[in-house]
Every structure is written in C-alpha cells, then in structure tokens.
Amino acid sequence: QRMRQGLAKTQAGLVGRIDSLLSGRARVDDDLLEELEEVLITADLGMQTTRQLVDAVEERLGRSEAADPQLVRQVLKQEMISRLAAVDSPLDLEQARPMVIMVVGVNGVGKTTTIGKLARLWTSRGKKVVLGAGDTFRAAAAEQLAIWGERAGVDVIRHAEGADPGAVAFDAARAAVARKADILLLDTAGRLHTKANLMEELKKIRRILEREIPGAPHETLLVLDATTGQNALIQARLFKEAVEVNGLVLTKLDGTARGGIIVAIANDLGLPVRFVGIGEGADDLRPFDPEMFVRALFE
Ligand code: GDP
C-alpha cells in the first residue's frame, strides 16, 4: 500500500500516459508504436530499454493486425517484470560474518539516510549492525549517521572531519570483527567533481576492507536518486566501470514521476535493485521485488 502511494507519480507519468495513448485506438499500427516509443522515452525508460519493450510489443502483437491495443499494456507489464526479474537476486546477508557492505554514490542521493534505514531494518530482525562513517568530507554526514545509529541502537565508528576515510574503513572493519557484528555498513564520500579521485579512493577503501576481512566488501551498493532520471543512469555507468557494484538502491521514488528509470538502469546495466526508498522516514525503505513493483505501477 505504501509502495503504491510512493509510486503514484510514476504511475501517472508512465502508466497513465500509456493508458491515454491506448484509449480509443482500434489497432496496433506504426503510429501507435511510434507514439509508445515516445511515451516510454519521456518516462525515462532510456533508449535501449524502450527499444526492447517496443520490439517485444511488435513481436508479440504484430503490426496492423486486429490486435486489441489493450494487450499492449499486458505485454509491457510482463516484459518489464521479466526484464527486472532476469537481473534480480536477493541480497544474501548470511554469506559472511561480518557481512561487509560498502555504500557508494554521489552526494545528496540518500546514502546516509539509506544506511540509517537499513541499520534499523536489520536491527529489528535481530542482526547486530555496526556503521562506519566513511564520508569524512562532510561533517554533517558523520553527524547524521550518528543520529541514525543512536536511534537504531547501533555502534557508529567515526573519525574527525577531514580524516582519512581509509582509516575509518580500517577501524570499522576491526570493530565489526571485535564486536562480532553480523553486518558492517560503511558510508563513503561522494564528491563527483573529482571523479578520478573519488574512484581511486573507493578502490583504496576496498583494498583496506579486503585486507581486514576475507572476501570483503561482500556487497557494494550503489545508491541513486530516482528524481534525477537519466543522470542516475549516467552515474550508474560511471560507478559500474570504476568499482565492482553488486546492487542498486533507488531513492526518492515518492517524489518523482521518473520511477521508470529503475527498469532502464537494471536492464541496461544488468544489476539487481536491492531496495527502493519511498520517503524520508525510518520505515520508508523497501526490499525490491520486480513483480510487486510492476504490479503496483500497472494495477
Ligand atoms: P547523501 O549525501 O547521499 O548521504 O544523502 P542523504 O542521506 O543526506 O540524503 C539527502 C536528502 O534526501 C535528505 O534530505 C534525505 O532525507 C532525502 N532522502 C533520502 N532518501 C529519500 C527517499 O527515499 N525519499 C525522499 N523523499 N527523500 C529521501
């Protein structure tokens, strides 16, 4: 239900427009397919995914046949579910102990908030969580993480502003082992204006984690702001090239009609969406389920 509310704008911007395109049409012809392509692109599905979806409609329904345009809706829905499902995989928290999760993404996308929400979610399920305040460039980031940590009742490893993020990673890894944590969540800085620098730094943090805990980081979660549409897709490509990203979090779905970007990013990059953010509150983070997501949009 909350998911449906969170997706209301995207539903209007994507499915609402598909529905008005289809209403009053008698057949699936070139015109219809062309307009459909335009609607999907404007709704942030991206070139590649739009092409694939329109091709699927054409393949399944044929051109100029007496196919009921309402079937277009069905094909799109099924195609989105199967494309998301093809890259979907649940986050396995049992694969290591401590399970080390490095959280990356540019400033402002919602990294710190997402870490806070995850700490709360997993603590409520009986997991022992430790947080590492690896974004040492913004004083507010460590402060904000400390507040989330306090609320969730978990330890936060933090250094002074401007400290070496590698040193935070090192201490956080040691602390997670010493305190027998199930999960270590490590925040990182996200200044994109120095891209090469940022990526180098993330690699360095990776190496430090690896050295302290075999196999770490077990998960590198990339956080993206859905309201930025195509920009999120561009960021995803950059990060995927530079660091080993295992999974995605799309935040701020509640504030945007651009939620279709989720399908574009997962499909284009072949990465699973692990969670979606649908509000600023502590409970406004949901595990991602392709079928549930697409149904919430279409039904
Ligand atoms: P960071 O710089 O990546 O760590 O970003 P923050 O965690 O500080 O978040 C930036 C802003 O986005 C804050 O005001 C958050 O409350 C807000 N935010 C994060 N996730 C969501 C979400 O899912 N929905 C909404 N509406 N706001 C969010």
TrEMBL record:
Domain annotation SRP54-type proteins GTP-binding: ranges: 272-285
Record's keyword annotation contains Plastid: no
Name of the protein this chain belongs to: Signal recognition particle receptor FtsY
Any one Gene Ontology molecular-function term assigned to this protein's record: GTPase activity
Listed GO CC annotations: cytoplasm; plasma membrane
Oligomer status and interactors: Part of the signal recognition particle protein translocation system, which is composed of SRP and FtsY.
EC code(s) of this entry: 3.6.5.4
Record's function text: Involved in targeting and insertion of nascent membrane proteins into the cytoplasmic membrane. Acts as a receptor for the complex formed by the signal recognition particle (SRP) and the ribosome-nascent chain (RNC). Interaction with SRP-RNC leads to the transfer of the RNC complex to the Sec translocase for insertion into the membrane, the hydrolysis of GTP by both Ffh and FtsY, and the dissociation of the SRP-FtsY complex into the individual components.
Whole sequence portion shown: 118 to 416 of 416
Keywords tagged on the record: Cell membrane, Cytoplasm, GTP-binding, Hydrolase, Membrane, Nucleotide-binding, Receptor, Transmembrane, Transmembrane helix
